Amino acid sequence: MGGRVVECHAFARAGLLGNPSDGYFGRTLSVVLHNFRATVTLQESTELRIAPDAHEDNGFHSLRALVASVTRQGYYGGARLVTAAVTTFSDHCDRQGLVLPSQNFTARYQSSIPRQVGLAGSSAIVTATLRALMEFFSVEIPKERQANLILSAETEELGITAGLQDRVAQVYDGLVYMDFAKDLMEDCGHGAYEPLDTRLLPPMFIAHQQQPTKVSGRVLHDLRDRWERGDAVVLETLDRIAALAPAGRKALLEGRHEQFASLMNENFDLRRSIMRIDERDLAMVETARALGASAKLTGSGGAIIGVVKEDRIKQRIAQRLGALGARVIDAETA
Prior knowledge:
six-stranded mixed β-sheet, 10 strands, alpha+beta, 11 helices, single chain
């Protein structure tokens, strides 16, 4: 094929504190995980083409193979995410009066991020695509605006229910404290984002289900409906969840890791009080806690993250959660 080649990456994300308040003018603290990443490559070509991932072939050996593919990948693969990112990028350039050179490319993508387990695999593909497009066409976009565009590609182009938290962490590529106060969002169109040194974090582990967890859309919509109706319990609980993020930021800056771990536990407990938790996720959290670690969901469900102080405890967690069908690894945040 020949021609210029651009390759960009984006990593998985774990919500540490404050989620799910980001969708409700709250505050969050999130970090990218270098354990998993999405890669997008653009290679100059005569036609513009989005090449499907090798795992997304529409041909199947059997009915079982088709069902297994849907279980692993979902009904839609990453090609639609790349296409949505390209469309959103083009629309942005048109609105900004940027005339892009007449230069076609073939886009290829791959991802090691486990799907449908709350590690922001979809937004990582969109983020990596936007980065590649910016480099390919020599276009600069402020980081806070990048996060908005990535969210727009998913929500407006594809109808995916999502918030800014994942995209901000992935764009800033590290540990980020985020304030989504209503006045900021309405006046600026984005929140206030503060990158922090990942070396402030204590040793952590990740555990994710080997089989995808399908979070009920009804559960998410129920929370939104209750919030919009002014449900006092939901409003108070989301405010309490949001307050954990600045408390956690302060604890990290002061080196108080035990308090940070306790805040992570509290985040999960508050979330559980207003949202249904999948039984497999609850089993992972309760098992890890019983062994002496903290634990909470990384996102919507399917994976947890926690603070663990001793290797022997981590080994026991790996054994016990492995028996529950989960994979346990050290969290690589730097």
